[in-house]
Amino acid sequence: MSITEHHSHAEVPVLDNDFVQDPHVRYAQMRADAPAQRVVTVAGMPVWVVTRYAEAKMALADPRFSKDFQRMRGLLDSQVQPGQSRPEFADSIQAHMLNMDPPDHTRLRKLVMKAFTPRRVEALRPRIEEITAELLDDMADRSEVDLLDAFAFPLPIRVICELLGIPEDRRDEFRTWSNTLVGSDPDAAQQAAGAMAAYLIELIEQKRRQPAEDLITGLIEASEDADRLSEQELISMVFVLLVAGHETTVNLIGNGVLALLRNPEQFAAVRADLEQVPAVIEETLRYDGPVNLATLRFTAETVRLGDVEIPEGELVLVSLSSANRDEDKYPRAQEFDPDRSTTGHLAFGHGIHFCVGAPLARLEGQIAMRRLIERFPNLSSAVAADDVQWRFSTLMRGLETLPVRLG
Q1: Torsion of CA 58, 63, 67, 70, to 10 degrees
Q2: Name one Pfam family in it (predicted).
Q3: Spatial separation of the C-alpha atoms in residues 258 and 147, rounded to whole Å
Q4: Which CATH number fits domain 3-405: 1.20.5.420, 1.10.760.10, 3.40.50.300, 1.10.630.10?
Q5: Strand pairing partners for 396?
Q6: What does the alpha-carbon distance between residue 175 and residue 153 come to, in Å, rounded to a whole number?
Q7: Tens of pLDDT along 325-356?
Q8: Residues 284, 290, 293, 299: what is their CA dihedral angle, to the nearest 10 degrees?
Q9: Has residue 90 got a pLDDT over 60?
Q10: Of 26, 291, 316, 333, which has the most beta carbons under 10 Å away?
C-alpha cells in the first residue's frame, strides 16, 4: 500500500511554527496512523518523517538510509520550488561525519575519537564545575533571570570553546552563528556558515603554527596508519563539534528545568535527593530531548517500514522526539517520570552516527542541574507554565527564553 493511498483522507502536515510549538500532539496522531508519513517543510519541500520507535531505531542504523551529502545535493536541488533557491553551504563545513556513509564516516570517526576521548571529557569536570559556580554567583544578586541567557547558554558555549581552543573574545560570535545555523532563515544560515568557515580556516592555521593543549590541536595531530584529517575535514569537524556541542546542552538544561517546573512533585523529589539528578537528565533526554528531528537522510533504495513503502531517492527525517514518546516502547510516555527506565532512548541517535559528544552533554547537564537546584532550591517559573515559546527549528527542540524566579 502506498503512502498516498494510506493518507488520501488526511491533510499533509507542515513543519511550520505551529508544529514546532506543540509537536507531541501531532506526532501522536502520526504514530497512530503509520510508522512514517510524508510532510512538507515551510519552504514546501516534501520529506518523510519516521515517527515510531522501532522504525526510527532501525532507520538510524540502516545503511539504506544514506547520509552522503554529495549525493544528497542533487535530491535537494530537485526539490527546490520555482522561484526559490537552496542555500549553498560551503563544502568546508559539510564534509563531516554526520554527512557521510562508510567507509568515509568510519575513517573520520576513528580519527576524531582519538582526540575526543572519555578521558579528555572527564578531565573537564573541574572546569565545568568552576564555570557553573561562576555563572550561579553572577545570578545570585538577582531575583529573576532568563535562565537560558544567564546559565544554559553561557555554560556549554564556554566549555566547548575552551575544549576546542577558541579564544574568549570570539565566543559571542560563535553563539550567534550557531543560533542562526539551526534557525529557520536559510539566507541568514548561509551567511553564518560562511562567516564561521572563514574564521575556522584562520584559527586552524594558527593552531598549526602554535599548537596548544586543546581539541583542535588534537584533531590536527590525530592520525591512524599515517592518515590525517584534511584541511576541509578539519574545518567541518570543528564546525559540527562546536554547533552540536553547544546547542544540545543548552536545550538539555533548559528543557530539563522546564519539565521540573511543570512537575512540582518531581521537582520536590529531586530537591530532597540530588542523587536523582542523573535520572532526571536521562528522562529529560527521553521526554523532551534537545534534538527534535535528526539530520537529513535519503533512501539509497526502496525501503519498507511496516505497511509504508518509501521509494528510492526520497528525503527522510527521523523524529527522535516522536520515537521517545512512543507508548509501545515507554508506557505513559507523555508523563515526565524520572523513576522510569529510559534504557534505549534515541536522544543521541543510534548506530554509527551515535553522538560522539553524548558523555560531555550528560556531564554538563548533570553538573548544571545539580548545582542549580542546590543553589536555588526555591526556583520557580516567572511566567505561566504554558506561556513559553519554543525556538522555530525543526532540528533542535529548545526554548526561546525561560524566565525564572530564583528565591
Answers
A1: -160
A2: p450
A3: 10
A4: 1.10.630.10
A5: 291
A6: 8
A7: 999 999 999 999 999 999 999 999 999 999 98
A8: -90
A9: no
A10: 291
- Distances in Å between the Cα of 312 and the Cα atoms of 1, 28, 31, 39, 216 are 16, 27, 22, 17, 38
Question: pLDDT tens digit string along 93-151?
Answer: 777 888 899 999 998 898 888 767 788 888 899 999 999 999 999 999 999 999 999 99
* 158 pLDDT above the threshold of 70: yes
Q: What average pLDDT does range 358-364 have in this prediction?
A: 94
Using a 10 angstrom Cβ sphere, with 0-12 exposed, 13-18 middle and 19 or more buried, the burial of residue 300 is middle
